[in-house]
Amino acid sequence: MTTPIYLDYQATTPVDPRVLETMLPYFQNAYGNAASRSHAFGWEAEKAVDAARGQIASLIGASPKEIVFTSGSTEAINLALKGVVEMYASKGKHIITSEAEHKAVLDTCKHLEKHGVEVTYLAPDSKGRHTVEQVAAAMRDDTILVAIMWANNEIGTINPVREIGALCHDMGTLFFCDATQAVGKVPVDVQADNIDLLCMSAHKIYGPKGVGCLYVRRRNPRVRLVAQMDGGGHERGMRSGTLNVPGIVGLARACELCEQELEQDAAHAIALRARFEKKVFAALDHVHVNGDEEHRLPGCSNLSFAYVEGESLIMGIPNLAVSSGSACTSASLEPSHVLQAMGVGDELAHSSIRFGFGRFTTEDEVDRAADQVISAVNKLRDLSPLYEMVKEGIDLSTVNWTAH
Amino acid sequence: MAYSDKVLDHYNNPRNVGSMDKDSEEVGTGVVGAPECGDVMKLQIQVEGDTIVDAKFKTFGCGSAIASSSLATEWIKGKKLDEALKIKNTEIVEELALPPVKIHCSVLAEDAIKAAVQDFKDKQASK
Known about the structure:
The structure holds two protein chains of two kinds. By secondary structure, chain A is an alpha/beta fold.
């Protein structure tokens, strides 16, 4: 079997060799605990962590003291949402979020609802986007937090974050933004974008898995959190636990590279995506782009191939590492909650595939991938009773199906 | 998810793909499932006397659904109508080593056989 082509950059990214190189000494020689104050090993680790904070803060326009290291975005999301709710309980108990958020946000909100928090889940438009007016309309006197993601992980749709942040600041409500997919891919500036809390993961930006951070604003307003992990009081009491020094150094180097190469990376990903979509659309009919083509992450292409089921399509492209928009590959048979929230019919949701292009994707890979997709879709459409019916001119919505 | 070799074989080399004239008196057509559920099977039989002499299918669905219907056409070819109706989804599950989450694919294939036979019988009755 030939080596598969990796097109799942929204799931995770390969570690950039330059990142790995920066990390290695912190496994081997500089293995000190950053909290050890009594010897050189500890000082060296602390120095590395301090430098890392600066590099990460620089990428997002924050100050180093506003960075709280975590194991990744999921933990940062838990800390932000639960920590705010607990700290500001006397101020209110209402959160506004989106139906299209990542499960880490949705499931944390579900947990909070069991503890008396009221959550408004805004429905995105048909392209997966929210408007500031929609958020404004959901605001209440007791709204303490708005949690809207920067860019959606399944479809890549980018929200009007700056406007939503400005609204939150006008209303005196905190704004948390899950920027896991956006940091390093599009310019992020927590000052200009009016963000109070923001999370990111290293492994989405060519860094290692298992490390990320939460940005916590320190002034205008100063955001306070109740820690969700008890222990040694690391990270100014907000997240106890020995710091993952090699991971943090890797996250920082990844951020530094993104800051230097953001424009180049984005142009590369956009060009590859355009190349891919052009080939696919030229060869196949009934293909739909899921998401907002005007406001879309550079490397993300979520396509629905009508009349072909997603899981069977993935089987037909065994040399492509991609992700299906329907969760049929897991134990549940539900189509993607994001596509459902957008009002994409279940039928098209079952037919969707997410292709992700990134720093290490080549034109040759894109061309081979497009050829394989086209050939698999054609083969499956020859097998598809739905495609046959459509070609015969039958309107599928008029058929009396036997739902099961 | 890991697919069994037999599922992969049917997926890569589906048997009896195609369509028959659904208006022919010798043909019975069964269409089961729904697009929004992620699988639709069309199974057709050509009958002479009470024997299925040919079978064709088209399936929109996952690899297991394609394999289940492909296998079903193989099994019913040459069988008498009553014998075809005795095919149980559990036999398909066993033959293809389907995991629990894919059992519904085998159920759909059994339903498709039954629907095709019924369609043929209805046509004969209304002659």
